[in-house]
Amino acid sequence: MMTPVKRVNRFFLLLTAPFFGLLLCLWWYQPPLQLNLDVGQFSPIVGPVQETAALQKELTLAKKAASYTIDSVSASAKLYKETTTAMNALVSTAKAQNSRPERIYNNRITSKLGIPSEVISSDRITIELYRLNPGNYKAYALKIKLKDATAMTMSLAESSSGGAETTMQAVNRYGAVAGINAGGFADKAGQRYPLSTTVVGGQYLNGFQPSYKDLSFVGLNKSGQLIGGKFYSRTQLDQLEPKFGATFVPVLLQNNSKVPIPEKWNLTPLRAPRTVMGKYKDDQLLVLVADGYNEYGSSGATLKEIQDKLYTMGVSDAYNLDGGGSSSLIFNGKVINKPSDGNLRRVPTSFLFSE
């Protein structure tokens, strides 16, 4: 798309082209001087004198034309410079006005988080770490702005299904600056397999499985937007162009509304360490990890408490990820939460963020 400044440049280029053409013609044109030396003429000097006078007259007119052209070009150049300056100022003002609503909205959601304890920022991503203490539990939050969709990815412990590693190991392996545990898993014959539909690098790991038992998919699409929910056909999910994603339960918020939490997941366990990922309406991400010293119902946060907290913070969509001893939050080379197992649990998938 041609910018306003580029259109002005093209206009003045077309305006000044004839003047430069005239100057070039005057530079190249040198009228021949013809002297009449015929001795038979009565006045041998009159012809050359008349031609010289005529030539001088033409040169005088040419100088006047050239002077006028130079003055016109100078005036045009001055007007061009002034117009370009004015257009640049208008563009700068427009950019500032366009970004103003974004800044206002960001200030609004940040005010509900408090003051970040640490910030990582680059031309690809900005991550802010917050420490929360709502009262009944202790939690940590990451507010993440993806400036480049490739700044977020999902790791798979091995090239094929069945492996597991801690989120710290995944962070180190990818050279990431932050990471959280992702989807659920099932153990079989000493192997740890991702639960249900899992997408890695735009490819289905073990095919598509329709949502069942309240499970939901959550991941990122090719445009860098968080997507999630229940999907009953592959076509449904394919339309969102998932780049990667994993499965767990349940959906907490969707389209700025609370989603009813299935009774089973409200009670078993009642309280537990939690890992939740959501997004704001401007597509910034919010990760919340609640601490708990065990996963048996007496420590951590309830899903209702997490749902209410995210709703009041202005999150539009939110999905519960694997929790309990799997809950992991790595930031800037450190384990931020306190894993209920005493150590980080090995998991098959992790969501990672890179500078």
How would you sum up this structure, described in words?
The chain has 355 residues and is of the alpha+beta class. The protein has two domains: 107 residues; 238 residues, no CATH class. The chain is 34% helix and 25% strand. It has six helices and 20 strands. The strands form five sheets. The protein has an eight-stranded antiparallel β-sheet with strand order 1-2-3-16-15-17-13-14, covered by helices on one side. A five-stranded antiparallel β-sheet has the order 4-20-5-18-19, covered by helices on one side. Strands 11-10-12 form a three-stranded antiparallel β-sheet, with no helix packed on it. Helix 1 runs antiparallel to helix 2. About 3% of the residues have low confidence. GO terms for molecular function: hydrolase activity, acting on glycosyl bonds. Keywords: Glycosidase, Hydrolase, Membrane, Transmembrane, Transmembrane helix.
Count of extended strands: 20
User: In terms of per-residue confidence, which ranges show pLDDT below 50 for 5 or more consecutive residues?
Assistant: 33-43
Question: By helix and strand content, what is the structural category?
Answer: alpha+beta
How large is the radius of gyration?
36 Å
- From the spread of the alpha carbons, the general shape counts as elongated
Terminus-to-terminus distance: 30 Å
Mean pLDDT over the residues:
87
> How would you sum up the major sheet?
8 strands, antiparallel
Beta-strand percent range: 25-35%
User: How are the strands of the biggest sheet laid out side by side?
Assistant: 1-2-3-16-15-17-13-14
**Estimated helix fraction:** 25-40%
- The sequence of SSEs as H and E is HHEEEEHEEEEEEEHEEEHEEHEEEE
Domain module count: 2
Helix count, DSSP H or I runs of 4 or more residues: 6
Transmembrane segments: 12-29
Keywords: Glycosidase, Hydrolase, Membrane, Transmembrane, Transmembrane helix
GO molecular function, one term: hydrolase activity, acting on glycosyl bonds
Protein name: Phosphodiester glycosidase family protein
